[in-house]
Design goal:
Blueprint lengths: L14 E5 L5 H13 L4 E5 L6 H13 L4 E7 L4 H6 L6 E6 L7 H8 L8 E2 L5 H13 L3 H28 L10
Parallel strand pairs: 1-2, 1-3, 3-4, 4-5
Helix pairs in contact: 1-5, 5-6
Length: 182
């Protein structure tokens, strides 16, 4: 995962991925992977809404000033990171609730999705970092035709994989290959 800007605020970042703890990294890694695969520049940081609030706010403000297009924030438990980020920027913020503790991520989901009026945070499924990455790419692609084409190609690739799987399963049950048309 690219982290070329490491707090300098000087390098171009398309999407900032933030998490409250290093233990969230494996959950958040798919967001970085899909974004980098689509050609976007990603910076990944561990900054806590509770333990490092000043550093988190400074990073968000600097990234916003330097043109970051979206933030993806993953957190478990109280899961306030996405809301804390939204308080410091008008750029899109996508929350990824992370399963932690005894509630399996339900507490994180509620903490992430229940934002007050005026502080929107888009929220994906618990552990849904890959979809968060795709959503960020789709948001950015509204103003970037080349990225929009790459996002569409990614979607087409997934469609083809499902149809190939369908053909394999149908062949196993003697029903022949499925049509491959759109």
């Amino acid at each position: 995962m690219n982290s070329s800007a490491q707090g300098s605020g000087a390098a171009r970042i398309d999407v900032a991925i933030m998490m409250g703890s290093k233990s969230d990294l494996e959950t958040m890694r798919p967001a970085a992977k899909i974004l980098e695969g689509l050609g976007l520049v990603v910076e990944v940081r561990v900054l806590s809404a509770h333990r490092t609030p000043e550093q988190a706010a400074t990073f968000v403000r600097e990234a916003t000033q330097n043109g970051v297009k979206a933030f993806i924030c993953g957190a478990g438990g109280a899961a306030h990171l996405a809301g804390a980020v939204a308080a410091h920027t008008t750029r899109p913020v996508i929350g990824v609730p992370i399963a932690a503790g005894t509630l399996g991520g339900f507490d994180s989901l509620l903490s992430t999705v229940m934002m007050p009026p005026g502080m929107p945070v888009a929220t994906v499924a618990v552990g849904g970092a890959e979809n968060a990455g795709l959503l960020a790419a789709q948001i950015i692609a509204v103003g970037d035709a080349a990225l929009a084409s790459r996002v569409e190609a990614e979607r087409e690739s997934r469609r083809r994989k499902v149809l190939e799987s369908d053909a394999e399963v149908r062949a196993q049950f003697g029903r022949g290959a499925a049509p491959t048309g759109k």
